[in-house]
Amino acid sequence: MKHLLTYSTLLATALFTFSSCEKDDEIDFNFPDHGSMAYVSSNTSGMVTMVDADGLTDVTVKQKSIASMDADGIYYNEERNEIILASRTTNRLEVYQKRGNGSLEIKTTSNPDFTNAREIAVSGDLIVVAQDADPALNGNMNRLYVYERTPSGIRYRNTYDVDFNLWGIHAEGNALWAVADNTSDIVYFENFFSNSNGMIQPTKRVTIEGIVRTHGITYSKADDKMVLTDVGDGAVADDGAIVVISNFSSVFGGTTNGGTIGANAQVRIEGSNTMLGNPVDVAYDEDSKHIYVAERANEGGKVLIFEMPTSDGNPMPGYSKKVAGAAAIYLHQ
Fold it and tell me: Taking Cα atoms as reference points, which of 94, 100, 104, 102 lies closest to residue 65?
């Protein structure tokens, strides 16, 4: 923001105006020419929410039922016109396509290999599932499962064990970014998909100063921006934050393995105006410069959209929509 007071005031006005323009028309999977489509999974409702935003002035929202009540990571494949999500109900990847009557139906699934899935990331035809450790569900194993989307279905490819708790992940070519849940750290695997099965170690791990607990992660190569979320205390509904690191390749490259990216290299928004309590996932629109957030704690779940901040502050979101159990968000541009 240029000036905190001006920025917050403008967005407060915008929030009222834009909410009143919201429509609930039918949405096709086919991406519209004028805006960005966000796909949101839920871990409570058995619904996928689609948010078609032309900037912040024209927003259309539609929800569709799916087979799984509890789903987390989500992705939209434009070429196949399908939604891929990680089901925590069936412990498998599920691929959905739209039927003629507008409903969603499962086209294909993976085998039920993982438990306690928290996010997915996609690079080409390769799909990564982050499994967070749980003593009762999976023997306390933090694992990254890799699958390949083939013409006939989903083929299992690899399993990698890691020695840190998993949540958000982001694939970029042959590389993978991941947050180290329950810490302030992010990790980077340079040649992730070239690994053999078994325990793998990251190329680099760094701490993000000021973050209490990392969760959501996304990187824009075009803008060279890393966007992270901080959920703070998971039991507190008003202590979340978004962190933006510009010129990230230079900042990260200049930080030693095990080092810290300081607050002076970050822009951080937080506070009562933001509605950020447990921002569990994040996406970034490099065209409109908007940040999309899946917020889990506030009012049972929300989608929030912020303008890209230019300095620390406590701005209101430009758009807010209740989405029960919002667990993951993917933005297709």
Answer: 104
Phi–psi pair at 34, nearest 5 degrees: -105, -10
How many residues can be counted in the chain?
333
The tokens for 112 are 């039920």
C-alpha to C-alpha distance for 137 and 115, rounded to whole angstroms: 6
Q: Tell me the CA distances in angstroms from 196 to 157, 201, 287, one per residue in order.
A: 10, 12, 37
The alpha-helical segments, DSSP class H, found in the chain are 4-20, 135-138, 248-253
- Cβ distance 90 to 68 under 8 Å? yes
- How far apart CA 193 and CA 174 sit, in angstroms, is 6
Distances (CA, A) of 122 to 2, 80, 176, 230: 35, 14, 10, 23
pLDDT band at 54 (very low <50, low <70, confident <90, very high): confident
Q: Measured between alpha carbons, how far is 230 from 270 in angstroms, rounded to an integer? A: 9
pLDDT one-digit tens code per residue, 307-333: 999 999 999 999 999 999 999 999 998
